């Protein structure tokens, strides 16, 4: 099974950006531990601060991956274009968020992506990514 993790804007700053919200670990360090823990899954990741690049990566993913774990970050609440890309590709996408977006500012309560995603996982810190990947493993076994 091949899973792509796509991270949106500002997630390249994990480990230094608002550690009280996002924790103190970099995504690179977390990703290395995730690869070690979930050796049965071929994991790749991509991060961009640019909406169009995220859309291009989602389009490309449909040709090479069994699923996508998507943390579109702030684009979750603003991007109809990313939501349309999720809807357009023929592989499942699980939306994730490190923080509990429902417990934050009201503008973060709306997700344009959720209606087109297989599921949504929020609020478990970086563990949200692992939970999303485990959902793909569970779905494969059904």
Q: Brief overview, please?
A:
This protein is an alpha/beta fold and 142 residues long. The chain has a single domain, classed as Rossmann fold (3-Layer(aba) Sandwich).
Description:
This protein is of the alpha/beta class and 142 residues long. Helix content is 37%, strand content 18%. It has helices spanning 19-22, 27-37, 51-64, 80-88, 127-140; strands at residues 2-7, 42-47, 67-71, 93-97, 119-122. The chain has a five-stranded parallel sheet with strand order 2-1-3-4-5, sandwiched between helices. The longest helix has 14 residues, at 51-64. One of its GO terms (biological process) is chorismate biosynthetic process. One of its GO terms (molecular function) is 3-dehydroquinate dehydratase activity. InterPro entries: DHquinase_II, DHquinase_II_CS, DHquinase_II_sf. This is 3-dehydroquinate dehydratase.
**Roughly how many Å is the radius of gyration?**
14 Å
Spatial strand arrangement across the major sheet: 2-1-3-4-5
Biggest sheet, in brief?
A: 5 strands, parallel
Coarse shape: globular
Catalytic activity: 3-dehydroquinate = 3-dehydroshikimate + H2O
Active site: 22, 97
Keywords: Amino-acid biosynthesis, Aromatic amino acid biosynthesis, Lyase
Family: Belongs to the type-II 3-dehydroquinase family.
